[in-house]
Predict the 3D structure of the following.
Amino acid sequence: MTRTGSPSPIAPQDLLEALSDLHPELTILTAEDLAGRHPGEHSENFGAQVMAQPSSTEAAAALVTWCAAHDVTVVPQGGLTGLVGGSISRSGEVILSTARLNRILSIEPEEMTATVEAGVTLEALQQAAARHGLTTGIDLGSRGTATVGGMVSTNAGGILAFRNGVMRHQVLGLEAVLPSGAVLCDLTRVVKVSAGPDLKQLFIGGEGAFGFVTRVVLKLEPQRPHRATALVGVADARSALALVRHFRSLPALALEAAEMMWPRYIRDHAALKGLDLSWLETEAAALLIEVSGESVEAATSALEAGLEQSWEPLDLQGGIVAQSLDQARRFWDIREDSGFYYAEIPLAASFDISVPPLFLDAYVAGLESRLKAIDPTYAAYVYGHIADGNLHLTLIKQGPLPEAELRAVERAVYAGIHEAGGSFSAEHGVGLEKRHGYEGFVSPEKQALGRALKQALDPKGLFNPGKVPF
């Protein structure tokens, strides 16, 4: 690798002058333009002070070709909802934004596919697909700002991963500008392709290290608008999984969500939001479960019957079925407004791990012990996508932690995950913040192969250097 990610010697003002007339479909924003914009989940996302916004693949390719010729680092950015610093930029770099690549190019109802530009938000695609009785096979709490290109680049997961898989399973084809400026166009619209290695997979989860995604073909699925929602008390993850399996086996229903919140999370958040939990047993966790059926009445009736049938066998610890859309939304707010704790514990260390679902109870119990071995006052908020084993964890202590203490917490969080068949990062990616996890919990052989691919596609190391990490 001939470049280590050090800032380009070209000053931001010189970059602005050089890029201002590069292509008619390329808009260049200055530091003044960016000053009034929200930087997203990381305050340093706009550090480069220069943002290029192409409105076509050709404009993006022109920008990348120029940067390759002048050894200027490119930092791809989407909706800025990433949580691991994957979009951080620095002076001397150029931000390459998908903001103007925001068109839904086609929706094919009969084949249930959509072709979109990378800057389309998940919510915009969902709304457009709904007009055809369709929806995306993936859903996230940040649907209003998360872009399709960003979701591809982080291999996003979300609420429906237990049923439909992650972004990798939703993408049929894509187009991307390579670090050289060449364009790889593989806009396949079929599932069955057995024609050599599936090279588009390099860009799914690649966090912009291998190129800039410009267009994507996605699978869609039938929309199931008639929903019923409940909060159910469970003693542990195993009981929750048994309840999930029960509802997945019912022919008249489709399980749409199974989100578990451990006791500390559900009680503290409910108290903050004024949600009555008098029905929930004191030590119980809460399972948010949503199903769909032929009508709201049918879905609600089947949900209630399923809970009644499971109540004693699974020793359920209380439950309440939403009686209105507003009540269902309040339940979902407790789960999806998961950053409620940052007001009291700003910059708290957070993690996103996955383990085989049957390992969840042992993992959470072990985590508590490992954290208290570091500091007896330590505790964590635990919640996540129970059916696919994805947990989100936040240390209940204001950050940032001293370096040595943070590394000790990381070791406590990641202990046993690889051996169990899980991952230190489930759906948030690596970025800058999880590089120690990558270096310590990804096999040397896998790391070496990743570096070899990076060298082959980006020999100068100009695309999002330091992330993933490369």
Observations:
- Confidence is low (pLDDT under 50) at residues 1-5.
- The first helix runs from residue 12 to 19.
- The chain is about 30% helix and 20% strand.
- Residues 98 and 119 are 5 Å apart (CA to CA).
